Amino acid sequence: MTAIVGYTDGHTMVLGADSAAVTDRLLIVCEPHKVFTSGAGLVGVSGGLRIGQLIRFQGAPLELGDDGPVPSLLRWIQALRVGLGPAGVLRTKDGIEELADSRMLVGLAGRWFEIDSEWQIVEPASPYWAIGSGQLIALGALHAMASWMAPRHPRAKVTAALHAAAMYDPGVRAPFEFVERPVP
Predict the structure, then answer these.
(1) What is the pLDDT of residues 58-100, one digit of tens each?
(2) Is residue 55 a contact partner of residue 80, using CB atoms and an 8 Å limit?
(3) Are residues 15 and 42 in contact, defined by beta-carbon separation less than 8 angstroms?
(4) What's the CATH code of the domain at 97?
(5) Nearest CA-CA partner of 20 in 7, 11, 29, 9
(6) Residues in Cβ contact with 95 at an 8 Å cutoff, skipping those fewer than 6 apart
């Protein structure tokens, strides 16, 4: 359970996350560092905390190649698959290799990409996106802000979306953490 929220205004990319770690019967507010920088990108991981730790500390850095963000992400995903295999966090289901119960939100070159557990890359058309159990609440808050709020720094919008998710999703909790990067 979590909320990972990204927003860009075309100048700055901000990625934020809550601090809840949830088990079957327990919610722990901790320092999980669900969002971090990796090379040229911003990365947020929902699902198992161990997967996020492995990607953050042992994963290949995400580098932006001359061929653009999607080919760069494909190379990074392949490097992650090779590196994460020995860690035991990949599984095969119906002949498809999966990242066990996790998804990622990646910011690269001013764009957001969701990478699901089957390594599929989806690029939303909006300048914002969210993943985790608080996804729908955060997306609703971001949509409402985009349509009526005066321009605000992306961090203010991400913070408001995280507060909305924490208010209405029992698996999302403050404090929130943020990483940001200028758009190249």
Answers:
(1) 888 999 999 999 999 999 999 988 877 666 667 777 777 777 7
(2) yes
(3) yes
(4) 3.60.20.10
(5) 29
(6) none
pLDDT in tens, 170-183: 999 999 999 999 99
DSSP 10: S
- What Å distances lie between residue 85 and 82, 115, 123, 140, 144, CA to CA? 6, 17, 26, 36, 41
Q: Looking at residue 150, what is its pLDDT?
A: 64
Q: What percent of the chain has pLDDT over 90?
A: 62
- Highest mean pLDDT (candidates 54-58, 100-104, 160-164): 160-164
What total number of domains does the chain contain?
Answer: 1
Task: Write down the residue that tokens 């999607």 correspond to.
Answer: 70
Domain encompassing residue 21: 4-179
Please report whether residue 93 resides in a domain. yes
Closest Cα partner for 36 from 19, 16, 20? 16
pLDDT recorded at residue 98: 72
In a domain? residue 184: no
Phi, psi of 166 (to 5 degrees): -65, -30
Q: Could you give the C-alpha distances from 172 to 22, 25, 95, 118, 142, in angstroms and in order?
A: 9, 15, 33, 24, 17
CB 43 within 8 A of CB 37: yes
Q: Is 49 strand, coil or helix?
A: helix
